[in-house]
Design a protein that fits this description.
CATH superfamily of the largest domain: HUPs
CATH topology of the largest domain: Rossmann fold
Number of helices: 13
Radius of gyration: 21 Å
CATH class of the largest domain: Alpha Beta
Strand content: 5-15%
Number of domains: 2
Bound molecules: adenosine-5'-triphosphate, L-tryptophanamide
């Protein structure tokens, strides 16, 4: 059975973009692939985090995976720092990654390069840790949003380089980027993606926002000129609202356009708020319904399954590199 691996950071408020661009697809793909879903807390510490808050968010993200429909009997859900092989492989891959390759990463350019003086080396190295996550599990497919495409290309390059220099070791993964929803835009600025790190909280709808907050944010969402409700590429703010509506209602664009014929932006925003609230309320109830004990046992099971697979790859990597230590042939 082919494998998928994906992960999300336990930082900020998990938003509709994360759900529509990534998590939703994990839920669908888990039945066709052997699946590993990780809460990447080692990635989170590439920028300073409050320890208590980080620990809390890490468990919260695992709960979101479960509430979205990841089935722990079918898929492996685990926490990155529970499997030390992620950091171990990252070191090995670091030694094969060129500084120039990381210097080209657009996400680093946006997040770190502007403040070079006080940016940690970990942020620069973020894509190498991500490559390790993926390659450790001999992953075939990585379902992510559009913003991760460049990181996936680096992952493939590193895997091919290792295989060429030390012999076939890693499977070469492919990205899975959905045709619709791969880049949900900010509600307050349709030129930017909806992001956890956005200082303006009105730009994104968090999966844990309450109904009033959701209605208020959607009411304030910026719109373009023009009045009719159509899937029109020249009106990005409207397109974004319609894309969210489309994905949550599973209606086709002609059906949606017919439904909103003769109606205006106000009506669309109101109905979209109803749709989002109707989707998120039962979701939030499922989040609250997962007990601490249940979560502990799921994460423990995940840790074991993940570690088992990770160790197999890491043993092979060490043998290939001559790092086998006590198990190595003696002269
Ligand atoms: P930020 O939102 O601050 O950029 P992030 O992208 O680092 O944070 P993660 O939680 O690590 O957030 O991302 C989880 C998944 O959500 C990734 O697969 C990412 O591609 C996807 N994703 C993030 N933002 C969006 C978006 N606006 N639209 C679609 N997918 C998204
Ligand atoms: N960089 C990703 C999170 C992430 C990831 C991964 C995604 C870390 N490791 C491995 C897929 C596979 C992000 O969305 N910010």
């Amino acid at each position: 059975m082919k494998r998928i691996f994906s992960g999300a950071q336990p930082t900020g408020g998990f938003h509709l973009g994360n759900y529509l661009g990534a998590l939703r697809n994990w839920v669908e793909l888990q039945h066709e692939y052997e699946s590993f879903f990780c809460v990447v807390n080692l990635h989170a510490i590439t920028i300073p985090q409050d320890p208590q808050e980080l620990a809390k968010k890490t468990r919260e993200v695992a709960r979101l995976y479960l509430a979205a429909g990841i089935d722990p009997q079918v898929s492996t859900i685990f926490i990155q720092s529970d499997v030390p092989e992620h950091a171990e492989l990252a070191w090995v891959l670091n030694c094969m990654t060129r500084i120039s390759e990381l210097d080209r990463m657009t996400q680093f350019k946006e997040k770190g390069r502007s403040q070079r003086e006080n940016t940690g080396v970990g942020l620069f190295d973020y894509p190498v840790l991500m490559a390790s996550d993926i390659l450790l599990y001999q992953t075939d497919l990585v379902p992510v949003g559009e913003d991760q495409k460049q990181h996936l290309e680096l992952t493939r390059d590193l895997a091919m380089r290792f295989n060429r220099d030390y012999g076939e070791t890693f499977r070469i993964p492919e990205p899975f980027i959905p045709k619709i929803g791969a880049r949900i835009m900010s509600l307050s600025d349709p030129a930017k993606k909806m992001a956890k790190s956005d200082e303006n909280p009105n730009g994104s709808i968090a999966l844990l926002d309450d109904a009033d907050t959701i209605r208020r944010k959607l009411k304030r969402a910026v719109t373009d000129s023009g009045t009719d409700i159509r899937f029109d590429e020249t009106r990005p703010a409207l397109m974004n609202l319609l894309t969210i509506y489309r994905l949550l209602t599973e209606q086709t664009p002609p059906e949606i356009e017919e439904h909103f014929a003769g109606k205006g932006y106000g009506q669309l925003k109101g109905e979209l708020a109803d749709v989002v609230v109707e989707f998120l309320q039962p979701f939030q109830e499922r989040v609250r319904g997962i007990s601490d004990e249940e979560l502990d046992s799921i994460l423990e099971m995940g840790r074991e399954r993940a570690r088992n697979e990770a160790c197999k790859t890491m043993d092979e990597v060490k043998t290939r590199l001559g790092l086998s230590g006590s198990g190595a042939p003696r002269n």
